[in-house]
Specification:
The complex is a heterodimer of chains A (628) and B (365).
Chain A (H helix, E strand, L loop, with lengths): L2 E2 L9 E3 L4 E2 L7 E6 L4 E6 L5 E6 L6 E3 L7 E6 L5 E6 L7 E8 L2 E10 L7 E8 L2 E6 L2 E8 L4 E9 L2 E7 L4 E6 L4 E6 L6 E2 L16 E6 L2 E8 L14 E8 L5 E5 L6 E6 L2 E6 L4 E5 L11 E4 L12 E2 L2 E2 L7 E4 L3 E4 L4 E7 L8 E2 L3 H9 L5 H13 L1 H32 L15 H8 L8 H14 L6 H13 L3 H9 L7 H9 L5 H13 L3 H10 L3 H11 L7 H10 L3 H19 L11 H13 L1
Parallel strand pairs in A: 23-27
Antiparallel strand pairs in A: 1-33, 2-32, 3-32, 4-5, 5-6, 6-7, 8-9, 9-10, 10-11, 12-13, 13-14, 14-15, 16-17, 17-18, 18-19, 20-21, 21-22, 22-23, 24-25, 25-26, 28-29, 30-31, 31-32
Chain B lengths: L1 H11 L13 H18 L8 H18 L6 H4 L10 H17 L4 E7 L2 E5 L3 H25 L4 H6 L1 E4 L7 H5 L2 E5 L8 E10 L2 E8 L6 H35 L6 E6 L5 E3 L13 H12 L1 H4 L3 E6 L4 E8 L2 E8 L5 H15 L9
Antiparallel strand pairs in B: 1-2, 1-6, 3-5, 4-5, 5-6, 7-8, 7-11, 9-10, 10-11
Helix pairs in contact in B: 2-6, 5-9
The chains are: A alpha+beta (628), B alpha+beta (365).
InterPro entries (chain A): RMC1, RMC1_C, RMC1_N
GO cellular component, one term (chain A): lysosomal membrane
Pfam family, one (chain A): RMC1_C
Chain lengths: 628, 365
């Protein structure tokens, strides 16, 4: 199968951020915690006595301090404004308690207090910070949302909801928490927005088996919250290995009613990340990361859309740590939402990054347009799109079909954007669903970044393909494209095609186009013919009069001026000069008489004014009259 | 040299249509002669390339059946030798053009020189003169025979849908068939002189596509088989979409009551020709020979109208014939009306012109 390879692209489409955040982890007295709300790693040495270091991608939020060792820590997290540190410890006989310490400028102030949940005997499963001064405790009895009042050293309960939960999953980007009840048979999401707890519609999990905690993730994707559920193939008695795992994306809120199924085709342990609205499924044993785009065009069947990876899965680019390649997909890795990877042994915190050009490194020919479609939905992707298009245009002999499909992808997006703009401008108020258009390739962009860079013989076919795509999406051909079309067709000696395009209305009428065609008239009379037609449709009477005068057609020029209502102001000298050059003296006489009539009507006398400089023509008239 | 050979055939031609009792307009006969020669030149070659001892037999072999096969009638559509273009919405037109582009890129030896739907031209890749000759060959000689075959043979219907080579007439199945390909002398749009090409014609449903290949190319049966597989399905899709569009178009035209006056339009630059009575429709409303003769006269005598002008002629039996020439186009309207005056006719012609020739610029008077 023919494959397309984007020049100078590397094969990896995923990389770990160049310089990982380092933390010291390789000690038996050190414990590492991760806070996915703030994206921070806490390294606690000797229970905090010899120091706590907080590392994150944001250097201004990194700090280190010491604290008393009051017992083994289960969870430690800063509030989003870094003014309060909350710690949950594993202490015998002291359940349902979370400690708080006030911080100022990222250093402890020694103001400490604690909070005991309303369900005294409950077991705290964890806590989350939905807002700077709000904390939610998730217990096996339910959720308690409290307001932290650091200055008063106390918490005020805002709301609580009873729910018998076994474990939970939290999405800080959408403040949605998913509780697993009934040992994982029932998945119940709650929203912690607006300082309250809102119970959302429970998720239908078509599974008789309870769902395991490690198989559930709450993701923020395409502006909505989703529950990603790993469904492992059943282990049948006949075959020893289970079927491939599918990832079901069930909408929690804002995602409509359609659910997505991602076919991994793999079996084993998985982790999930989200980058730029793409779902990345990491598979440990094969060391591959599959990318899925749930925005790709597909028709839902039974409210479900099935997706395959957008490109064949490969591993991330091997990372280098301490000048050594570090083991990838290692068992020490922990993947956190949305796109963090931690190697707890090496002490590295990476951000997962997308390398867009890598997506086009090795693509089956017929999938190129899909990749362009994927890129059009990504941020900062225009450069890569141009690179792909330029390479396709360069080899238009091989890729004309694919190029046409790419143009269609681009113009389909542009059309949707244009429709939304029109709706927005006419309705007066913004429509509820604003589209997401990270990469809009306009006609001017296409000319500047792609089409103008080429001049080979197949440009005619490329430009025609582009025009046909614009036409399919009912986009008006803009002047930049029009000019390019005329230029490339004329250069290639395709005047016939140019005229056919104009005649069939494939190039919209416009004065610049009409003038271009007119200027081709000395080589190709048919171009001038269609140019005049176009001027006529555009009601460019002034230009028509000029053209007719230059063709020594004074009578029709006068007629055109009459139609334009410009008869009165048409310069007599110009008209007479054209009439004199006309081969038939009758023409001159007719024009002369018509002008005299005009003079009489305008000024009451048939004579020409001296400033009209018609002396020579008056003489010529007299000469003609004396001859006859 | 050319002139010398013409004369005996000019003398011969009037006898052929003599069966019909009408008098044939001399300009029509003249046009027939010219097109007969052009056809000869396209399929046999220019006289200068034929050895003098062969010229008589060659002419005999070509002209006799050709002239015999032509049925010349006094009809509006015969007055001017032109091409009937298919009006097509731009997206369908793009389908045709992009199909041709893709084909020429995939098979660089093949060049598409014309795309005809039914009897109407959509795409042309020849110099204007040859385009008319090839068009006439298709519409007057090849396609009528082909259509007849298609109507008779029930077994070929599958092939009609899938498409097949119709020139050579038996199709291209074996390497023997390749030797039967017609050779023609043509000037393609990008040629500067006449060259010899193989002419290959392919047809699916009502769409007919002509290709040329340089005669020096080594022909390979596999290429033709692969071309067949390439064109067949694509062309059939295009042909059906055009047919849908034509059906819509025909419906609209039927609702839009056709002009009660007959007209004839001709564009000298692309030889586009349009008449109020589509050629395939009933000839019962034939125009009177005198009227035709007048129109033929105006058309033949370009000087009378020049680049730009208008003439109105009234016959004793209340026919008003208007001829307009402007911007390399000609437009004729026949109005039969009693008690009309010149201004009525001029206004009526203006109305017909605006109605039928939307978006086309006629020099105002």
């Amino acid at each position: 199968m023919a494959k397309f390879c984007l020049k100078d692209s590397e094969k990896y489409y995923l990389t770990l951020s160049e310089r990982p955040k380092r933390f010291h982890a390789d000690s038996p007295v050190t414990n590492v915690f991760f806070d996915d709300t703030n994206g921070q790693v806490f390294t606690v040495r000797s229970g905090g006595v010899t120091g706590v270091t907080v590392n994150g991608m944001d250097d201004s939020k990194c700090t280190s301090f010491r604290m008393e060792d009051k017992g083994p820590i289960i969870s430690i997290k800063f509030s989003p404004d870094h003014k309060v540190l909350a710690i949950q410890r594993n202490l015998e006989g002291q359940n349902a308690t979370v400690e708080f310490a006030n911080f100022k400028d990222l250093m402890p102030t020694n103001v400490e207090y604690c909070h005991i949940c309303k369900w005294k005997n409950a077991k705290i499963l964890g806590f989350v910070w939905p807002k700077a001064n709000e904390i939610a405790f998730i217990t096996d009895h339910g959720i308690e949302l409290s307001q932290v009042q650091p200055e008063k050293k106390q918490l005020k309960t805002l709301k609580s909801t009873s729910f018998s939960a076994a474990w939970f999953s939290w999405c800080p980007q959408s403040n949605i928490i998913l509780l697993a009840g009934n040992n994982g048979i029932l998945l119940q999401p709650f929203s912690l927005n607006n300082s309250t707890i809102t119970k959302l519609q429970k998720l239908e999990v078509e599974s008789s088996r309870p769902v395991m905690e490690r198989d559930v993730f709450v993701l923020r994707l395409c502006g909505a919250a989703w529950c990603a559920l790993f469904k492992h193939g059943p282990v049948s008695n006949t075959t020893s290995s289970p079927g491939p795992t599918e990832v079901w994306l069930v909408p929690i809120s804002g995602g409509g009613a359609v659910q997505h199924v991602l076919k991994t085709g793999l079996v084993g342990r998985f982790a999930v990340s989200v980058i730029d609205d793409l779902v990345v499924i990491h598979h440990q044993s094969s060391q591959t990361s599959l990318i899925f785009d749930i925005m790709e065009e597909a028709k839902p069947e039974n409210n479900t859309v099935v997706h395959k990876p957008i490109v064949q899965g490969i591993s991330m680019r091997p990372a280098v740590v301490d000048e050594q390649t570090c083991p990838m997909y290692s068992g020490n890795w922990v993947v956190f939402q949305p796109h963090y990877v931690i190697d707890a042994r090496l002490g590295c915190l990476w951000r997962l990054e997308l390398n867009l050009a890598g997506l086009a490194h090795e693509v089956p020919k017929e999938d190129i347009s899909n990749i362009v479609g994927v890129l059009l939905r990504r941020n900062n992707s225009k450069e890569t799109i141009y690179r792909i298009l330029n390479q396709l245009v360069e080899h238009a002999g091989t890729y004309l079909m694919e190029l046409t499909h790419c143009f269609d992808e681009i113009n389909a997006v542009y059309r949707r954007w244009a429709d939304l703009e029109v709706a927005r401008n006419t309705a007066g108020c913004p429509p509820p669903a604003q589209g997401h258009f990270p990469a809009l390739v306009s006609q001017a962009d296409m000319c500047t970044h792609v089409l103008y860079k080429h001049s080979h013989t197949l440009l005619v076919q490329v430009v025609t393909a582009y025009l046909s795509s614009l036409s399919r999406y009912e986009l008006v051909v803009q002047h930049a494209v029009c000019e390019l079309v005329v230029r490339s067709l004329v250069r290639a000696g395709e005047g016939g095609r140019l005229r056919a395009l104009v005649r069939r209305g494939a190039l919209q009428d416009g004065r610049p186009l009409a003038c271009q065609l007119l200027s081709l008239g000395h080589l190709d009379p048919a171009a001038a013919q269609v140019a005049l037609d176009m001027m006529w449709r555009l009601r460019a009477y002034g230009e028509i009069v000029e053209v007719l005068l230059s063709r020594e057609e004074p009578v029709s020029a006068a007629g055109a001026a009459r139609q334009a209502g410009a008869w009165g102001s048409l310069a007599a000298r110009k008209l007479l000069s054209a009439a004199q050059q006309h081969s038939r003296p009758e023409t001159f006489l007719a024009i002369y008489h018509a002008l005299r009539t005009r003079n009489e009507r305008l000024r009451g006398t048939p004579d020409f004014l001296t400033e009209e400089q018609c002396g020579a023509y008056i003489e010529y008239y007299k000469q003609l009259m004396s001859e006859s | 040299m050319v002139l010398v050979v013409r004369i005996p055939y000019a003398a011969k031609t009037p006898s052929t249509p003599g069966e019909s009792k009408e008098v044939i307009e001399t300009s029509v006969i003249y046009d027939l002669l010219v097109s007969a020669y052009k056809m000869f030149r396209m399929f046999v070659g220019p006289f200068k390339d034929i050895p003098p001892e062969d010229i008589y037999t060659k002419c005999e072999q070509f002209f006799t059946p050709y002239i015999m096969s032509r049925n010349i009638a006094n009809d509006l559509s015969n007055i001017i030798q032109g091409i009937n273009y298919l009006p097509l919405e731009k997206n369908s037109f793009f389908k045709v053009v992009c199909f041709i582009d893709l084909l020429e890129i995939t098979y660089p030896d093949f060049k598409c020189v014309s795309f005809v739907y039914n009897e109407q031209l959509i795409w042309n890749g020849l110099a204007t003169n040859d385009m008319l000759t090839l068009y006439q060959y298709l519409v007057q000689t090849l396609l009528p025979k082909q259509v007849e075959k298609e109507i008779q043979g029930g077994a070929v219907t599958a092939a009609v849908r899938h498409g097949r080579f119709i020139s050579p007439p038996e199709g291209i199945r074996t390497s023997e068939d390749l030797k039967k390909l017609h050779k023609v002398y043509l000037m393609r749009e990008d040629d500067t002189e006449m060259k010899q090409y193989y002419l290959i014609i392919y047809r699916t449903l009502s769409a007919t596509v002509c290709f040329t290949i340089d005669v020096n190319t080594t022909l390979d049966l596999d290429t033709f088989k692969s071309l067949d597989a390439f064109i067949g399905p694509k062309l059939s899709t295009i042909a059906s979409s055009i047919s849908e569009q034509c059906a819509v178009h025909a419906l609209q035209n039927a609702q839009l009551s056709s002009s009660e006056h007959k007209f004839l339009y001709f564009n000298r630059l692309n030889l586009a020709c349009k008449t109020s009575t589509p050629p395939s429709l009933t000839p019962s409303t034939a125009v009177k020979p005198e009227v035709l003769s007048i129109i033929a006269g105006i058309h033949a005598d370009r000087k009378s109208l020049g680049n730009y002008g208008e003439i109105i002629i009234k016959t004793p039996d209340e026919y008003w014939i208007t001829g307009k020439s402007s911007n390399d186009r000609e437009f004729y309207v026949i109005i039969q009306e009693k008690n009309a005056n010149l201004k009525d006719i001029a206004d009526e012609v203006k109305r017909v012109c605006e109605e039928q020739m939307k978006g086309i610029f006629f020099y105002p008077i």
